[in-house]
Structures are given as C-alpha cells and as structure tokens.
C-alpha cells in the first residue's frame, strides 16, 4: 500500500523580506515536514525463503522520494510491530525498534534481551545484518519493493474510462512506483514459534499490525495494504491512522462498507452491472468485515501469501481490486503492473533488493568515484569468469593430457 | 618439453588462472555496488542548490515520462517551493503553482498539492486566498498539518493573532518539531517575550542540527536566532549564529544581510557594505538595498547611496507582483528618508487594509508622522504596540510621534526603551532617536529650572 495522501513537505511560505533584523512582519518558517520517517508506506509478513521455520516482518518508511537526497529513520520515533496471538485484537507481544540520536544504531526490544546493531547508512547498498539469539535484524535503505500503477489512485477520483484490464486510457503509458528513491526498511527474521508459541512452524495463527508513535502518541499504523486509500474517505484518514484494531469494527466498518459500495457503483456505471463474481456472493458487507479491523492475519498451516500475510512479490493491488470489486476472470480487473519493473528481490536476508546507487539516480558525490558502476562491474565480471572458465578448461585438459601421456 | 611436462605445465597454468580469476571475480562481486565504500553523505557538504536541482530534475523526468503521474507533479511543486526559498527567486513559486495545478487537475483530492497550492499563495502574499484554501484542506482532512501551518501563518500575516495562536497550538500537538517551535518563537517575539523566543529557537536549532532537515531550513533557524539577538542588541551572539547560518550555505543571502547589520552596529561600515553588497548581488531586496544606501551615506559616499535608493524604488515598482510584495517596504523607505511622503501614506493605507498586523499599523503611523500628521499617526502607533512587541524601530516611531504630540514623558520612555533594546537599530535613524531624546531631556531640565 502506498501512503498517497502523505502529510509531506508542502512548504510554508518564505517571504522574500523580513529576513533581516527588521520588522519581521510575517512568518517565514520552513515547512512542516509531517514526519515522513514515521509515515508507513508498506508492511510485509512472510515465511522466510531461507529458513522455512522463520517468519520475516518488514516495514518501510520514506516512500516516494527522489533519491537525490538520502533519507533515514528518525530518532524519537518508536517503530512497532504488534502481534496478537489469541485473536482479541489486543497486542500480546510488541516489538519496538528505536534509533539513536545520530541514527547510527538501532535497538530492538520485545523479543527477549534487547538487540542493538548498526544502521545501514543511507546511500549504502551493502546490508549490515545483526544476528542475536536466532534473530536477524536489518535497518537501512532498500530499493522500493512496492508496485502499483500510479493511475490506480487516479481512477478513484479522476474520470477515466475503465478498460477491462488495467486502469489507463488506451495509449497512456504505464508508470508505477519503481524509479523512486530508496525506502528505509526495518526487516526482522525470527522463529515462527517465538511469535505463535505453537509446537511447530506449521501451525498457529497470529494477527499483526505495524505502527509508529512519538512520545506515546500514535502517528501512523498499517496492516492490510491499501486499506486506508481504498476504504477511508479523505476526512477519515487521520482518525484511521491514529486508530487501533480493537476499535476498528465499531469506528470504521460501516464507513468501509459505504466506500466499497461507492467504488462498485462507479465501476458498474462504466462496465455494466456485475453479478456474482468469482468470489461468489461477496457483498460489500462481507468485504468490509474481512478488511476491517486492519490487521494481517497469518495462519501458518496454510501458504503464507496475501491475504494470508504478505510477501514482497504478492500483487496485492490486483488481489485487493478483485476482493473490493468482486470482478475476476474474464472481466478481471488489474492495474497491469506485476512488479517486473522493480529490482529483483534477494533470496537471502534481508530479501528486499539493495538500493540503486548508480550515478544517474543517486547524486551523492561519493558514488561512482573509484568503485565500478553496476554496468562496468557486470562487464568485468563476465570477462573474469571467462578467464576462470578458461583456467578450469586448461586445468582439465592438462589433467587429461597427463593421464593419457602415461 | 615432453607431453607429461607440458601437461603439468598446463595444469599449473590452468590452476593459477582459475584460482586467480576466481578470486578476482569474488572481489568484483563483493564491491559490485559503488555504494559499498560509501559513507553517510554529510548533508552539509553538498551545495543545497545542487541537491534541489537534482530533486527537480528527478520529478521533472517522471512527469515527462508519465503525464498522469500526479504524485510526481505534486512533489515537483514542493521542490520548486524549496528552490524559491533557497534562491529568493519568485518565478520558482510560479513554477510550483503550475505543478500543483497540474497535479490537482489530474487528482483533485491530492492533499499535498492542495496544501502546496495554499502555501504558494501565502508566499506570493495572497494571504486571504491562502487562508481560504488552507482552511478547505484542513476541514476536509484534520491530519493535514501543513495546511494547518499555512492557516496559522496567514492568520498571523493578516493580524488575526488569536487565530494564529490557536492554529499553532494545534500544530504543536499534531506535529511537534522544529518548524512549529520556530513559529511559536515568532509569536513570543511579537508578544515582547524575547528571552523565551531565544530559548525556543535554541531548542529548534539543536533539534534541526541533530536530525535530517534541509540545509536551507537549518540555515533559516540559525538566521532567526541570529536576528533575535540582533534585535535585542546582542551583537556578538547575533554574529555567531548568522555565521553558522552560512555553514554549508555560503550564499544564504539573508544571513549575509544580517552580518551587514551587525557590522554596521559595531561601526564597521566598510565591512557592512561588503556584506550588504554580497547579499543584494544574490537577491536585491529593497530593505537590504536601503540599508546599503544608508551605510554609504554614513561614510559620506552620497553618490553610491543615491544609487541604492534609486534601485529600491525601481525594484519596488518593477512588476505587479513586486508591488504586492514590497509595498510596505517602499512605504517605510520613503518615510525613513522623508521622500514622497504622501505616496508613503497611500501605500501604507492600502497595506493596512489588506493586513491589520502590528507592522501594518506601525508603517501607517510612521508614514503619517513623516507626512507631517502626528495627530493622525497617534492611534496607529498605539495599535502597533498593542501586543507589547519589543521592537526598537516601532518604539522609535512611537517615541517621535508622542513627542510631536506633546507627550514628552511617554516619548522619552519609548525612545529609551528602543535604544536600550538595540542601540544601533538603524544606521540612518539611531542618531535621530538620540537627538530627540536629548531634546526631551533638555526641555525637561529647562522646565525643571523654572
């Protein structure tokens, strides 16, 4: 999910006067930055590809940046992962991550003894991984893993004609969220049983939601991607961000249902009425009940993939659309963005791809000076591997020659 | 060499080649990304203009690739606003406006673009327009803290002080941090509580220095602190913070102007001229041009002084937008130099109509006084001081007006306050303050002798 309506950066006027020690006759103070580093852009919960007994919890902030400037986490913000193990929508365990004032170290609490480690600094692609007590932690820049056609937001308000597949008018080029600067990611991998308290890693159900707060006051929260954007009208977004799952049904379910009815009516008007989609009689009421409260439910006895958790590669946009609109199959709706434009994920921790540090994207003066660029090093690598192969071939031939010369 | 020896040689060569290239391959893979040897880039080491240009280029490229990417249009707008702040170039605001308008044409509910549009209106001095837009955004989304900030700022500019205080109070709850502290410090300064303003600004500066804010924002906070010190006569402290404002932002023109003020206050006029010249070479603000002219006059170079004064007028009238931005400054300039005094009154009257803040009242009071109408000036001078602002120029204006209206005691008090607060508040006018004060004292002693 992308935090589209970010309270980000809109700047307050700089008056081109009054900066001298004169009648400072109106306010020129800089922008209210809206705490971008506390604004969750995406969250993920998935079974570890490396160790199937482990679960990976990941959260991203600092989405939608330009990569010309490094961004980082913020000191004073608590990044929390809330885990409910008995389905009462109250956290039974809370993992809390905080950062030192100089943003060089992090501290993880709530998983036994506190774990401290080095933050991977902005601009660095080399992941610094902290391991302790069977738990791995990473905090630092990663390539944006999210993928969704930007127009998917536009269609919610703009008068597009909706084609059967995809959300753009014929001829519009697609554009997604790849190409934005790196996000700041916290990735934690730990044994599934440490969270579920179950006998093994193939049983047990947990509900997870992520939140950020400052000084005890919640700033943002997130679980099911796109919930806020799809289900909450503009005037509810702030209340939703400060809300908690235990109160969600009472506060937001009716609003969510009305919103779903609104989207379906809009799509019906363009594509004609839809009766009984591939998900059967999925009424707005049932969808609202499934999406609110805003928690990710993971049942480890089933494959862990969206909506049963969320992997990095899950096309949640298409799945959500299908659920929201109950239009699948031949009249399937898709935003036609499958993530192939993103950097390939890693097969090992921390799984999210390293940030792009090539000179054309990052402008930090110390990239590309001295070290090879990605393009250069790939070329050299092939040359060198060819050399290796030649060496091996030579070794092999020599061996055979020796044998046959006896 | 026989076959066996050749074979051994081949194996040896092959092994060396394989091993060697294998190791080399590993080396390349390990150092594949140029980022592996990157240390955290120090924000202060990079030219802020370069960074902003890159941000602009990034979002510009995105919207060119995808004309319906309203997210990027909105962010492009924000980048242009930032450019405007850093360079003082008004046209950057106009480019920002275009970008926000495009974003909103594509997605009318884009809160960032709506709030951005409101803030640009504010920057271009359309305070009522900015207020209306910002209120709409905030009403629709109580989480839109940037719109809330614009509401406070616009209310403050217009003189709605209670509303501004309320807005900033809400902002402090919703988005605590440097930018709201800076605003609260300004409110404190307006209310005459300079010490508290200084405390808040020290906190603000420390917060910003420790966490990632833009280079320009950090420079601004240091500037604000430096100016607070100058306004209260603490020239050494002022110099310290104004110099720090130039750290990493060597052409931050308001800080250069501030250092000019400090130099002039110390009687170091040539140094002051140098700073002012550097500042106006970057952005020729009327108020700095006037100070430069006054300093030239002080050292007896009347020709150079007149040249600056002519430029003040020229710029003040240059374009429609300049008239909106600089009318108040022009009125003050005329009044200070006893020229075009009836025009000054007209300009000040029109300004007060638009903005009933304490400086609007002060400008009209001063213009009326210089136009030979101290009785008319009196009520406006009272209004100007209604918040208890401790501003040497305002107190000086009020002192002259009260003296002309026969209230010597009050005049004396105001003039003394002004000179106590900032003995060198104006290269041009401080002498006038001392002269009038001396006159009051000698009148008093003459009367006393009777």
Layout of helices and strands, plus pairs?
The complex is a heterodimer of chains A (about 400) and B (about 450).
Chain A: E1 40-47, E2 54-61, E3 77-84, E4 93-99, E5 105-109, E6 115-118, E7 130-132, E8 135-142, H1 151-157, E9 183-191, H2 192-196, E10 205-214, E11 217-222, H3 227-231, H4 237-241, H5 245-271, H6 284-291, E12 296-299, H7 316-325, H8 374-405
Antiparallel strand pairs in A: 1-2, 2-9, 3-4, 3-10, 4-5, 5-6, 7-8, 8-9, 10-11, 10-12
Helix pairs in contact in A: 5-6
Chain B: H1 3-30, H2 48-65, H3 70-87, H4 90-106, H5 111-123, H6 127-140, H7 145-158, H8 161-174, H9 178-190, H10 194-210, H11 215-231, H12 235-245, H13 253-265, H14 269-282, H15 286-298, H16 302-317, H17 320-336, H18 341-354, H19 358-370, H20 374-384, H21 392-404, H22 408-421, H23 430-449
Architecture of one domain in chain B, CATH level 2? Alpha Horseshoe
Give the largest chain-chain interface (CB within 8 Å): A-B, 110 and 144 residues
Q: How many helices of chain B?
A: 23
Rounded mean pLDDT score of chain A: 78
What order do the SSEs of chain B take from the amino end to the carboxyl end, as H and E?
HHHHHHHHHHHHHHHHHHHHHHH
Query: What share of the residues of chain A lie within helices?
Result: 10-25%
How does this structure look, described?
In chain A, strand 1 and strand 2 (54-61) form a beta hairpin. Chain A has one domain (36-331). Chain A has helices at residues 151-157, 192-196, 227-231, 237-241, 245-271, 284-291, 316-325, 374-405; strands at residues 40-47, 54-61, 77-84, 93-99, 105-109, 115-118, 130-132, 135-142, 183-191, 205-214, 217-222, 296-299. With 406 residues, chain A is an alpha+beta fold. In chain A, the strands form 2 sheets. In chain A, strands 3, 4, 5, 6, 10, 11 and 12 form a 7-stranded antiparallel beta sheet that branches. Chain A has 8 helices and 12 strands. Chain B is an all-alpha fold and 450 residues long. Among the domains of chain B are: 48-108, Serine Threonine Protein Phosphatase 5, Tetratricopeptide repeat (Alpha Horseshoe); 337-450, Tetratricopeptide repeat domain (Serine Threonine Protein Phosphatase 5, Tetratricopeptide repeat), CATH 1.25.40. Chain B has 23 helices and no strands. Chain B has helices at 3-30, 48-65, 70-87, 90-106, 111-123, 127-140, 145-158, 161-174, 178-190, 194-210, 215-231, 235-245, 253-265, 269-282, 286-298, 302-317, 320-336, 341-354, 358-370, 374-384, 392-404, 408-421, 430-449. The longest helix of chain B is centred in the N-terminal third of the chain and has 28 residues, at 3-30.
């Amino acid at each position: 999910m992308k935090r589209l309506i970010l309270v980000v950066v809109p700047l307050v006027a700089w008056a081109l006067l009054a900066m001298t020690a004169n009648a400072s006759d109106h306010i020129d103070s800089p922008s209210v930055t809206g705490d971008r580093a506390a604004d969750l852009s995406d969250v993920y919960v998935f079974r570890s590809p490396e160790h199937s007994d482990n679960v990976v919890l990941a959260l991203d902030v600092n989405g939608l940046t330009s990569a010309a400037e490094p961004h980082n986490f913020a000191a004073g913000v608590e990044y929390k992962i809330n885990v409910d193990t008995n389905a009462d929508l109250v956290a039974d365990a809370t993992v809390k991550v905080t950062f030192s004032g100089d943003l060089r170290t992090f501290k993880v609490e709530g998983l036994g003894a506190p774990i401290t480690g080095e933050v991977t600094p902005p601009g660095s692609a080399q992941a610094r991984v902290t391991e302790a007590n069977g738990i791995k932690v990473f905090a630092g820049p990663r390539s944006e893993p999210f993928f969704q056609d930007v127009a998917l937001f536009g269609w919610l308000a703009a008068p597009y004609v909706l084609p059967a597949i995809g959300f753009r008018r014929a001829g519009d080029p697609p554009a997604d969220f790849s190409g934005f600067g790196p996000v700041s990611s916290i990735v934690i991998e730990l044994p599934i049983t440490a969270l579920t308290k179950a006998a093994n890693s193939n049983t047990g159900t947990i509900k997870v939601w992520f939140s950020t707060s400052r000084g005890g006051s919640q700033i943002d929260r997130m679980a099911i991607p796109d919930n806020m954007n799809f289900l909450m009208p503009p005037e509810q977004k702030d209340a939703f961000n400060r809300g908690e799952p235990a109160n969600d049904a009472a506060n937001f379910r009716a609003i969510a249902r009305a919103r779903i009815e609104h989207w379906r009516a809009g799509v019906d008007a363009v594509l004609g009425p839809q009766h009984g989609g591939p998900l059967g009689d999925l009424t707005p009421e049932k969808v609202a009940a499934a999406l609110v409260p805003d928690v990710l439910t993971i049942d480890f006895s089933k494959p862990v993939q969206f909506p049963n958790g969320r992997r990095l590669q899950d096309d949640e946009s298409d799945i959500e659309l299908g659920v929201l609109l109950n239009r699948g199959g031949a009249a399937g709706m898709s935003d036609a963005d499958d993530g192939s434009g993103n950097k390939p994920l890693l097969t090992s921790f921390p799984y999210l791809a390293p940030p792009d540090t090539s000179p054309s994207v990052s402008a930090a003066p110390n990239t590309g000076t001295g070290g090879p660029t990605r393009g250069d090093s790939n070329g050299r690598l092939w040359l060198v591997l060819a050399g290796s192969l030649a060496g091996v071939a030579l070794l092999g031939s020599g061996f055979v020659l020796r044998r046959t010369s006896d | 060499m026989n076959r066996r020896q050749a074979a051994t040689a081949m194996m040896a060569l092959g092994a060396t080649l394989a091993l060697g290239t294998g190791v080399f391959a590993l080396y390349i893979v390990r150092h594949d990304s140029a980022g592996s040897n990157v240390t955290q880039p120090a924000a202060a080491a990079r030219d802020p203009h370069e960074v902003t240009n890159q941000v602009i280029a990034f979002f510009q490229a995105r919207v060119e690739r995808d004309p319906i990417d309203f997210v990027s249009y909105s962010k492009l707008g924000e980048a242009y606003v930032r450019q405007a702040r850093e360079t003082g170039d008004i046209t950057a605001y106009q480019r920002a406006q275009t970008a926000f308008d495009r974003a909103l044409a594509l997605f009318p509910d884009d809160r960032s673009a709506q709030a951005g549009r409101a803030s640009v209106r504010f920057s271009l001095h359309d305070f009522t327009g900015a207020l209306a837009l910002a209120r709409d955004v905030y009403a629709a989304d109580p989480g839109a803290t940037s719109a809330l900030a614009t509401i406070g700022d616009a209310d403050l500019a217009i003189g709605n002080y209670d509303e501004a205080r309320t807005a900033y109070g809400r902002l402090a709850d919703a988005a605590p941090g440097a930018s709201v502290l800076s605003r609260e410090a300004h409110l404190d300064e307006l209310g005459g509580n300079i010490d508290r303003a200084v405390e808040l600004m020290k906190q603000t500066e420390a917060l910003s220095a420790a966490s990632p804010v833009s280079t320009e924002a950090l420079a601004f906070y240091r500037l604000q602190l430096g100016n607070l010190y100058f306004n209260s006569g603490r020239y050494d402290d002022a110099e310290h913070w104004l110099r720090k404002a130039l750290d990493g932002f060597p052409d931050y023109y308001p800080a250069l102007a501030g250092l000019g003020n400090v130099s002039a206050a110390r009687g170091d006029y040539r140094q002051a001229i140098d700073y002012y010249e550097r500042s106006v070479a970057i952005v020729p603000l009327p108020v700095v041009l006037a100070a430069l002219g006054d300093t030239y006059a002080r050292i007896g170079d009347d020709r150079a002084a007149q040249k600056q004064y002519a430029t003040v007028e020229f710029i003040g009238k240059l374009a429609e937008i300049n008239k909106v931005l600089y009318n108040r400054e022009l009125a003050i300039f005329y009044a200070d130099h006893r020229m075009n005094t009836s025009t000054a009154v007209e300009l000040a009257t029109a300004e007060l109509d638009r903005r009933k803040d304490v400086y609007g009242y002060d400008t009209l009071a001063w213009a009326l006084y210089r136009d030979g109408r101290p009785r008319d000036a009196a009520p406006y001078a009272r209004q100007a001081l209604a918040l208890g602002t401790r501003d040497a120029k305002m107190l000086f204006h009020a002192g002259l007006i009260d003296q002309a209206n026969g209230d010597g005691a009050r005049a004396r008090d105001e003039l003394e306050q002004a000179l106590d607060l900032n003995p060198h508040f104006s290269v041009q006018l401080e002498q006038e303050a001392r002269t009038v004060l001396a006159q009051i004292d000698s009148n008093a002693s003459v009367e006393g002798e009777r």
